[in-house]
């Protein structure tokens, strides 16, 4: 494995030797990842490599067979009692498909009020905070009154992002949050994530099967292959000079990336290829 140190002793996320199984099938084989405060680590790998298993383990819904996860100093599999509350403040998962996690009979305002205060959800009482978070994800305040089916896929994903951020978790896990979207909407959401990283100083694990997507929002990237980390390092280096054969294979499936061979290339891709061959 190619290992470059991910800097900072003070990790917001500290994953050590994580092993996770479904029954007898081991899916993660000793995964270790650190995320420093305010940084984003991208996790990339093909379908079935264990990305969502990692995400579910980090939010505490799966228990590891071995290893540990500390988020903001909290061992997420050891907290008891007020566990739910602690976890909600500590780590939030933004899912791939917000449609299935939004109740079709409730307005966006209701959904956000509930995220803020599950026991006493009340849109009126939380109005200012809801408007603030809608504006943060660049949605108009009127979105509050809409039902999920009245929103586009991109709008629903913005709502899911707002919901994930509004409790100010120490760490955000984004699992394939753009893969269900059209390419143009995908670009908008990535742009939003990039802005929010800067504005809010997010600490994030950003998961995608697409290395080009991961590169746009990540400081460091880890490449997962069948539940093993085969390569990790700065996002730019992984994208432009992948060292592991599997990473190069992932890159080959990315349009516009070095080595991707289709006609015709647009100007951006041409420039990118020229830049790359000049290195
Ligand atoms: N609930 C489950 N029970 C049994 N096996 C599972 C379960 N969930 C996932 N798996 C298996 O674990 C492996 C990793 O799955 P996982 O969903 O973590 O992959 P992934 O990288 O998120 O894939 P994708 O890109 O398709 O979302 C796969 O072989 C999958 O079939
Ligand atoms: Mg998945």
Characterise this structure.
This protein is α/β, with parallel strands linked by helices and 279 residues long. The protein has a single domain (2-278), classed as Rossmann fold, CATH 3.40.50.300. The chain is 37% helix and 23% strand. It has eleven helices and eleven strands. It has helices at 51-58, 83-90, 98-101, 108-116, 127-136, 153-165, 183-200, 211-217, 235-240, 245-252, 267-278; strands spanning 2-3, 13-22, 25-35, 40-44, 66-71, 74-75, 91-94, 171-175, 204-208, 220-225, 228-234. Strand 5 (66-71) and strand 6 (74-75) form a beta hairpin. Helix 4 (108-116) runs parallel beside helix 6 (153-165) and helix 6 (153-165) packs parallel to helix 7 (183-200). The longest helix is centred in the last third of the chain and has 18 residues, at 183-200. The model is unreliable at 1-9 and 259-265 (pLDDT under 50). It binds adenosine-5'-triphosphate and magnesium ion. Magnesium ion is lined by residues 51-52, 176. Residues 51-52, 176 line the site of magnesium ion.
How are the SSEs ordered, and which strands pair?
Elements: E1 2-3, E2 13-22, E3 25-35, E4 40-44, H1 51-58, E5 66-71, E6 74-75, H2 83-90, E7 91-94, H3 98-101, H4 108-116, H5 127-136, H6 153-165, E8 171-175, H7 183-200, E9 204-208, H8 211-217, E10 220-225, E11 228-234, H9 235-240, H10 245-252, H11 267-278
Parallel strand pairs: 1-11, 4-9, 4-10, 7-8, 8-9
Antiparallel strand pairs: 2-3, 2-5, 5-6, 10-11
Bound molecules: adenosine-5'-triphosphate (ATP) and magnesium ion (MG).
Magnesium ion (MG) is lined by residues 51-52, 176.
